[in-house]
């Protein structure tokens, strides 16, 4: 479909102008890998014959851009959902009035975070919590500590989280938060000082029945521990106010593994629809953090071969595959030594390292020949050129481990070439699902076994797959998991909002 061929695009020419100039002119430096963000293009996200954008969707999209013209990631996430849920309003016209509500956070909290560095100097960062939607339960979603953090990124993440949490079948609303703090190069004491100051303020706005944060980029077990300790001091309460806690103080077994494992369980289900499996498949993974590590582990356990990993400095390609022993090296490198992925290629002769080159229009990682690709690093790390390379390299399945790693145009390219594509809100939902299980265990004051949690996680991923697959069929877009996930996720939230008087 040509860029201007969509009736919605024609109807929203003004929106497109605002967004394109906003994205390319003002936000290019913030785009992943330093590239200009893709201009908005009409997609094949909605299948042939499906309804085009109705006026309510167009107005909601225009409203989002008009209210916050400087939030390109948020526009992108909203657009991807709204473009695909139009057919819902043919069946349930009254639900369309929820669009302006669902695209506006219930509450945004912004605060300063003062802390002292190793030299005793005062530093100040900016902290946030976006409480997006509480129709299904307490706000739930991670905290991100990364220098790029801003309201656009956190609102996109919080928006995605609402539909993701809905898909898990567990009672959780959606939220996200974080700070523009860079943990890279900081000592444990500096990270602790930051986390304590961050939680001193955040503790006023969260609670086990209100808002239950967890980890995300730059926030793992260490940071959750420091924040939990501070919450306890400030509030004098030992409650499940955070998930991703250590096993010793109320964490759940399998939570560290859950996002990566869940992603691979989802991909298994997708392959099964084609009578295929991961056995013998070559797999590209990006990132080398929590999600990437456990996706790699599960793929290997299921007989696949992961050949790439990356970080913000570049990527490694290991033609022999990253087996359990090599993965243990990566885990120590990243989780303990906090070193760079290049070290992998120094240690293993079968591997090469290629430094990131932000001037290139594509990331060479996605040009490696493979069967399956699992982007697990960050948003907009797979652009249109990368998607073309994936198709040319023979990739049959793309499962998003990160949140929104594929641009809209990359997604369209994959769908147009019949690549099975799983959007993050479905395929990476295992992490938050396991967080939901951690909340249940905390309420029950019980700890379930590893096997029990893993089997619950596996079942939830199967259910999410089923919901996305069957909803796509029901709405005339068979095999389109973007349509299926967005509609299934939206319907539950919309019904709950209506029942609560919106
Ligand atoms: N941890 C979780 O449970 C969940 C995480 N996610 C998403 O998965 C993605 C990864 O998160 P985690 O593994 O938890 O974080 P992490 O902090 O453990 O790892 C992040 C990884 O991404 C890489 N990375 C970050 N920015 C990059 C850039 N600009 N270019 C290349 N690589 C970059 C880092 O080097 C690191 O390897 C994020 O998009 C996050 O939102 C989604 C669902 C749950
Ligand atoms: O476990 C959680 O609550 C948060 C997970 C998360 O941030 C995500 O799904 O993106």
Structure summarized in a few sentences:
The protein is of the alpha/beta class and 502 residues long. The chain contains 18 helices and twelve strands.
What are the salient characteristics of this protein?
12 strands; Rossmann fold; nucleotide binding; globular; binds 2-oxoglutaric acid; 7-stranded mixed β-sheet; 502 residues; 3 domains; alpha/beta; binds 1,4-dihydronicotinamide adenine dinucleotide
Tell me what you see in this structure.
The chain is built from 18 helices and 12 strands. The chain starts with 6 loop residues before the first helix and ends with a helix. The model is unreliable at about 1-50 (pLDDT under 50). Helix 4 (about 70-90) runs parallel beside helix 6 (about 150-165). It folds into 3 domains: about 5-100, no CATH class; about 105-240, 3-Layer(aba) Sandwich (Rossmann fold); about 255-425, NAD(P)-binding Rossmann-like Domain (Rossmann fold), CATH 3.40.50.720. It is globular. The strands form 2 sheets. The protein has a 7-stranded mixed beta sheet, sandwiched between helices. A 5-stranded mixed beta sheet has the order 1-2-4-3-5, sandwiched between helices. With about 500 residues, it is of the alpha/beta class. Helices cover about 45% and strands about 15% of the residues. Strand 3 (about 140-145), helix 6 and strand 4 (about 175-180) form a beta-alpha-beta unit. It has helices at about 5-10, 15-25, 55-65, 70-90, 100, 150-165, 190-200, 220-235, 255-270, 290-300, 325-335, 340-345, 385-390, 410-415, 425, 430-445, 450-475, 480-500, and strands spanning about 105-115, 120-135, 140-145, 175-180, 210-215, 280-285, 305-310, 315-320, 350-355, 370-375, 395-400, 420. 1,4-dihydronicotinamide adenine dinucleotide (NAI) binds near residues 287 and 290. 2-oxoglutaric acid binds near residues 164 and 435.
């Amino acid at each position: 479909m040509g860029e201007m061929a969509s009736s919605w695009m024609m109807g929203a020419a003004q929106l497109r102008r605002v967004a394109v100039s906003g994205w390319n002119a003002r936000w290019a430096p913030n785009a992943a890998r330093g590239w200009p963000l893709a201009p908005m293009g009409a997609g094949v996200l909605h299948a042939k014959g499906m309804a085009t954008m109705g006026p309510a969707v167009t107005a909601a999209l225009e409203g989002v851009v008009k209210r916050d013209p400087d939030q390109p990631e948020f526009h992108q996430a909203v657009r991807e959902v709204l473009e695909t849920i139009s057919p819902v309003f043919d069946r349930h016209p009254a639900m369309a009035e929820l669009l302006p509500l669902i695209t506006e956070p219930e509450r945004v909290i912004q605060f300063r975070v003062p802390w002292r560095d190793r030299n005793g100097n005062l530093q100040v960062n900016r902290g946030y919590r976006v409480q997006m939607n509480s129709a299904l339960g307490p706000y739930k979603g991670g905290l991100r500590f990364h220098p790029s953090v801003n309201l656009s990124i956190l609102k996109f993440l919080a928006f995605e989280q609402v539909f993701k949490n809905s898909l898990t079948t567990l009672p959780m609303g959606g939220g996200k938060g974080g700070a523009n703090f860079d943990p890279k190069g900081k000592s444990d004491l500096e990270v602790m000082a930051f986390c304590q100051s961050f939680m001193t303020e955040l503790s006023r706005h969260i609670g086990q029945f209100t808002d239950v944060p967890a980890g995300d980029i730059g926030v793992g077990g260490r940071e959750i521990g420091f924040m939990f300790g501070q919450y306890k001091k400030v509030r004098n309460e030992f409650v499940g106010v955070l998930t991703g806690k250590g096993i010793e103080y109320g964490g759940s077994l399998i939570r560290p593994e859950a996002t990566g494992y869940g992603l691979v369980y989802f991909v298994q289900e997708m392959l099964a629809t084609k009578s295929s499996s991961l056995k013998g498949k070559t797999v590209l993974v990006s990132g080398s953090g929590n999600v990437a590590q456990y996706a790699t582990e599960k793929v290997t356990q299921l007989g696949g071969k992961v050949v790439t990993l990356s970080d913000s400095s570049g990527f490694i390609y290991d033609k022999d595959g990253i087996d359990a022993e090599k993965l243990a090296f990566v885990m120590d490198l990243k989780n303990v030594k906090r070193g760079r992925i290049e070290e992998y290629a120094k240690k293993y002769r079968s591997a090469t390292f290629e430094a990131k080159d932000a001037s290139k229009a594509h990331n060479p990682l996605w040009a490696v020949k493979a069967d399956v690709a699992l982007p697990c690093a960050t948003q907009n790390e797979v652009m249109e050129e990368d998607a073309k390379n994936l198709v040319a390299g023979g990739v049959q399945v793309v499962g998003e481990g990160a949140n929104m790693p594929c641009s809209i145009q990359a997604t369209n390219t994959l769908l147009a070439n019949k690549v099975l594509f799983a959007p993050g809100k479905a395929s990476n939902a295992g992490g938050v699902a396991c967080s939901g299980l951690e909340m249940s265990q905390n309420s029950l004051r019980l700890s379930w076994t590893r096997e029990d949690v893993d089997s619950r996680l596996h079942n939830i991923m199967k259910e999410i797959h089923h919901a996305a697959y069957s909803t796509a069929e029901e709405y005339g877009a068979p095999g389109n998991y973007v349509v299926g996930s967005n509609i299934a996720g939206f319907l539950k939230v919309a019904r709950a909002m209506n029942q609560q008087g919106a």
